[in-house]
Design a protein that fits this description.
mainly alpha
């Protein structure tokens, strides 16, 4: 049960930081890198961790891990969607640093999922 309690703190804390930066207007008080790229760094790990957490509960398997190929698929898909498709056909701006942040977040998640 202690391991799941740590997961709640990790997920809750990360979501709190993400929402605080993205929607609370605190981005104007932060350095540019943190204000504009920290949310991109947290996005992939938050998304994958939420999926992993729910899947572990449903399958009742605490040792379940997301394979590297699925992490890469999600990271590439989100990069294409948010940094190519939406800026060209919708709303948003394309930024290669955001793509780098997505891949960095995916890499962090790959190594951190064994601990979580």
């Amino acid at each position: 049960m202690v391991k799941y309690k740590n997961n709640y703190y990790f997920l809750g804390g990360t979501v709190w930081v993400y929402l605080l930066i993205k929607h609370a207007g605190i981005r104007y008080l932060l350095p540019d890198f943190m204000a504009y790229h920290l949310t991109d760094l947290l996005f992939i790990p938050l998304q994958l961790y939420s999926c992993l957490w729910i899947t572990r509960i449903l399958k009742r398997d605490r040792e379940l891990l997301i394979p590297l190929r699925l992490i890469l698929f999600v990271t590439v898909s989100m990069s294409i969607l948010f940094e190519w498709y939406l800026p060209h056909y919708g709303r948003g701006t394309a930024d290669l640093v955001d793509v780098l942040m997505y891949f960095t977040g995916g890499t962090i998640f790959y190594f951190a999922q064994r601990v979580l």
